Fold each of these.
Amino acid sequence: MGNRYRMIFFDLDGTLLDYARAEAWALEQAVRHTGLGWTPEVLERYRRTNAELWRALEQGRTDAATLTRRRFQETIPSLSDREAERLNSIYLSHLEQAGFLLPHAEETLLFLSSRYRLGALSNGFSRIQRSRLRAAGIDTYLAYVLTSEDAGTAKPDPAFFARALRDNRLRPGEALMVGDSPTSDIAGALGAGMDSCWISPGDDCPPIPRPTYRIRNLEELRTILG
């Protein structure tokens, strides 16, 4: 099935990297460092706020600078702009060290790297994502990395995927997008004319538009592309 592809693109967070674990660890370190008082409720509020702001970024309703400030001010309302920016800086310095892998990530990349050119497409900040890839020890498998910060736009904008295709001299039918998000990964790739593979460990209904493939974990990708 997979031999028609010249390149496989992977989402990072929720696909190769364990963002939930990285986020929790980095946030706790940052909050404790600044003496603000750490509780599980802080993490819950942060996750809710951060997810809402990233959706707004994907939809073009906010920008990265606003996101990085507001996610902490809405989590801890007593913070001034300056304090929020400082907390964000400390948080990111910890996050870039958090290279926690999801199951089967490294062995899947190792297996596929001898058969395909591999890349990563991520809605995130370039320095942070590249540092996390190095920390995880999987950067050497990826010949290409594009973040929303690099591209000036975010998944699911077809222009983001068009940039990745153009940079790698690919036609849409020559690339496969692998990711866990029905919107930013699956709908985005299909909007650019690319095939997609949705990672969904549960029994969720396939998103509309439907992905080309559906797998429960990365290990199953080898069956499709091997």
Note: The radius of gyration is 18 Å.
Amino acid sequence: MEYTDVTNTPFEIEGLLDNNTALVLDYDGNKRVAKKLNLTTGALTPAYSDETKSISGVATDPFTNVPIALFYEGLTPQRRWLDPDLARLQNALNRAFPNKHVYLTSWSRDKKQIVVGVESGSHQYQNYLFDTTSMQAQLLTELEPSFEGFAFPTKELLKFNARDGLEIPVFVTKPIGEGTRRLPTIVMPHGGPESSDDAGFDYVAQFLATRGYLVIQPQFRGSTGNGIDFSNAGYGEWGGKMQNDVSDSLKWAIEQGWADSSRVCIVGASYGGYAALAGATMTPELYACAISFAGVSDLALMQISRENRSGKSSGSVSYWREHMGLTRFETAKIHAISPAHLAQNVRAPILLMHGRDDTVVLINQSQVMANALRRAGKTFEFIELDGEDHHLSKQETRERYLVEMERFLAPILRPGQ
């Protein structure tokens, strides 16, 4: 039996609003919008006239299966409650927790008991049980109780213009109490690359900022959260415009008077690890060091690994070929954007870390990079993490990741000086 994906459906039905009306998601150009479908006449009408961003998802009530919320694409939480009671509650909780992101995550059938998540860029995620009768909140969980009372730096969402004029969002976290002097800086591109950082608490960025580093997290073209056109702009730009955006974020931070150009390290995981290694090999003049966790170093090898796992005609292989803009058979071109083939350009120390049990980016990517650096006579360290996967799922290896980063960075970037 064969199955094929259906790709020509005109819209997606999300659920019933009443006995004769369905909520559907449809496209208005490249924007995903909500529409109402009349089940008798088949007429489609816009559900809302004020939608400016693409819808990323729909939530349904677990007890009735009725759509109750729309979630919009963005780097900060944006939602529209279709249930008026939950909309009023959201507004009340936003006032109760100012300058924080408040999420209604689950509730009782009568909506008298609500589980609420609260966080911000400088406040770790906490769960509360909120009673809508007494209007009182009881703390349920706290991921790191030892952080109670600890002041974390503020995480700001700003924008800069890349060299071709495209506006790029960027998260900036500055150490507390450092004044206006230029700071040792970490440029930290995210993984994906079709992903993004968000306005929530980032334990790596906060750890580095509390150690005295300015942390720059560019949402380079190709990232999600800024529209479909912006996300699609990353296709074919590995080592190209996506990497330029990362470099331009540093140049912008230097122009703002925040970053010390002589004390900069590029740090990343997964695609961010690729970007870190690309920075060290393609623009070595910018960085005093680089750290890659589970980073891709050889794009042809990655395609081969995907083919071996999923088959040469699989959707996964097709996606990566399309996103990279090259096949593994275009040897010269794919080597030109593969850090393992550019190791001779490296000028600064590199720290490689990789989980032995990583099934997303196989450890051979870091092994190949280590061998290339060794042959080129470059300074590097390679730490293989036993029993760890692609996502740093174990608490002890997350801690080791931070400890090894701090050990590696401190003598090179000299925070506090």
Note: Confidence is low (pLDDT under 50) at residues 1-8.
Amino acid sequence: MSLTIYEHETTGTLMEQGYVALQESLTVEQAIRYLREQAQDKENIHYVYMIDQKQQLTGVLSVRELLAAANTEILAKIMKRKIVYFPTDLDQEDAAKVFRDKDLVSIPVVNKSKQLIGIIQVEDIIDVIHQEADEDIGKLTASGKEINFHTKPMVAAGKRLPWLILLLFIGLISGGIMESFEETLETVVALAFFMPMIAGMTGNTGTQSLAVVVRGLVSEQLDLKKTSKLLWRELLVGIIIGITCAIIITVIAYVWRGSLMLGFIVGFSLLSTLIIGTLAGTIIPLILYKCKADPAVASGPLITTINDILSLLIYFGIATMFISKIM
């Protein structure tokens, strides 16, 4: 059977023929005899599948259950009729979730007539999990899901450029913000020293929240009903991180410049931006998920760029409000 007739990255392309199918009318003794004959040609036999005269899947038994049954028993009477199986057009990522939830080592694949046509082994699904993880990492870093060590430079650059060009233009907004607060920056030059730290910390905390949300959505541990709980938790996380870092940087700014007001401006700005950065990293992927878009598209670079803009606005906004107190 050619697997090329099935859509890419579906169960039809993952299945193999290394299974044992038995007529449900056979006795256990006949089944074991047949199993012994087939064992040499099959790499891994964990289950035997029962079919009827139309080749339709009707039941399943583990090899252990088959060997433990009485020789005179009819398979149809002892087989399990509640079967986990895949159609040929199921997405491979969904198939991986079934393996994870059901804790099975192989699952049969049937056609539209429910005829047994193959099985998928857990070993094949492990490869799928690695592949899907690579794709998600590629999306999170905006580097492209098909890029690896063997990708040609021109191809790799072509995958990354669209994102980076978009972020380049968005990043120009940061330059515009700095220009609009040029007078503030010239008045208190020390403010420039803390700019990279505030922007970097905000981007980092946003990316961390993004990773938590995407992981929860992909693993189906998180759904839209739990979003309010997640938002409150991430808000609390942002506040705790923000207060801790704000206290540290306030002390550093005061010791370095001898200005308590400068320490307050930097510390309060960092507290505010870390909270907002955490919420941005949480809310953006949830919005995309709600809009039926892949949440992993809310890539780390995009979150970082947005948080850069927000952090500069907050930092210079607060500095402008209290600049007279520093002088």
Note: The CA atoms of residues 151 and 172 lie 30 Å apart.
Amino acid sequence: MKKIALIYAANSDKTALVAKKIQKELGDAVEIVSVENAWQNDFEAYDHLIVGASTWFDGELPTYWDELLPELRTLQLKGKKVAIFGLGDQAKYPDNFVDGMGILADVFEEDGATLIGFTSTEGYKFNKSRALRGNQWCGLVIDLDNQAELTDKRVREWCKEIIK
């Protein structure tokens, strides 16, 4: 069985909640690693990566992801599949909705990883986002502030897609 790391910044209870929902959907193959405790070999040792972050302030990554960015930029991930999930508030931050997810996507793409799990923007109301790739999100987008009732369905459908 392929080893899958689910790496996320735990400085948000909401991100932790979504990470646990993803782990529940995917089962025992997924090992949760807090980004606060992650090292370069954690990213390179697993067959597949699921990474997640909320967007803070005006489109920034949470502290631990932000501090790890220089190290992330040195990874060799050619051929590795990476799925990304991001949290944001489309009503309060429509001009940088889930930008943190887009920042992570940029870094992993630069490292040679193959991004998987793109999703539709249908049902979201925002002005712009760094997480867009064409007319799709570069991963799973969750807005617990405005669309909490859609979270379980979105997680379930996304997990089915990324394990294909």
Note: The first strand starts at residue 4 and ends at 8.
